[in-house]
Amino acid sequence: MKGIVKGLGVTLKSMVEKKITYAYPDVPLEMPDRFRGIQHFDPEKCIVCNQCARICPTDCITLTGKPNPDPEKKGKVIDTYDINFEICILCDLCTEVCPTEAIVMTNNFELSTYSRDELFKNLQWLNDNNTNIRKENNSAMDKGGAK
Predict the structure, then answer these.
(1) Dihedral over alpha carbons 109, 110, 112, 117 (to 10 degrees)
(2) What is the gyration radius of the CA atoms in the chain, in angstroms?
(3) What's the CA dihedral at 88, 91, 97, 100 to 10 degrees?
(4) For the chain, counts of helices (H) and of strands (E)
(5) Using CB atoms within 10 A as the burial measure, which of 33, 47, 112, 139 is most buried?
(6) Among 126, 133, 99, CA closest to 43
(7) Nearest residue to 63 (alpha-carbon basis) of 36, 82, 43
(8) How many Cβ atoms sit within 10 Å of the Cβ of residue 60?
(9) 96, β-bridge pairs
(10) Structural contact between residues 135 and 33, judged by C-beta atoms closer than 8 angstroms
């Protein structure tokens, strides 16, 4: 009997509280600063060290480079950078290991599609994904010449 009264008390209390609803998708949700969303990639900063692809626990990152065509400059130039978001777990390891901060996390989380083929994102798409960049990375992006 005590359990029923206690349960009814919880029910009655929740009935009079103000309801919390969101007008999503009409009004976008504000995500916390430390939310790990979809990555932004800046190819101009990338030195093709391949550390992001090596540390990825799901092997969803494909990175290839070619020798720099400018004979005065050493190193490589990025050729392709692809992420398979079908298996990406947004663990943030690729951003932590990047020595030039070419990869940063954003607060974007909307990746729902009707086809799995649309979850393969390429260099151009990841470079254009520069909205809602984490506040901690905004200063780094501004110094690096973000758009």
Answers:
(1) -80
(2) 22
(3) 70
(4) 5, 5
(5) 47
(6) 126
(7) 82
(8) 18
(9) none
(10) yes
Residue whose pair of structure tokens reads 């290991």 in the numeric block: 97
Contact 60, 119 (CB under 8 A): no
Which residues make Cβ contacts (< 8 Å) with residue 116, sequence separation at least 6? 86
Determine how β-strand 76-84 pairs with β-strand 120-121.
antiparallel
CATH second-level architecture of 32-143?
Answer: 2-Layer Sandwich (3.30)
**pLDDT tens, residue by residue, 127-137:** 998 877 766 66
Q: Global pTM?
A: 0.72
Alpha helices by DSSP H, 17-147: 51-55, 93-97, 123-128, 135-143
User: What digits encode the pLDDT tens for the residues 16-70?
Assistant: 888 888 888 888 888 887 888 899 999 999 999 999 999 999 999 999 999 888 8
Q: Which two tokens stand for residue 10?
A: 């919880």
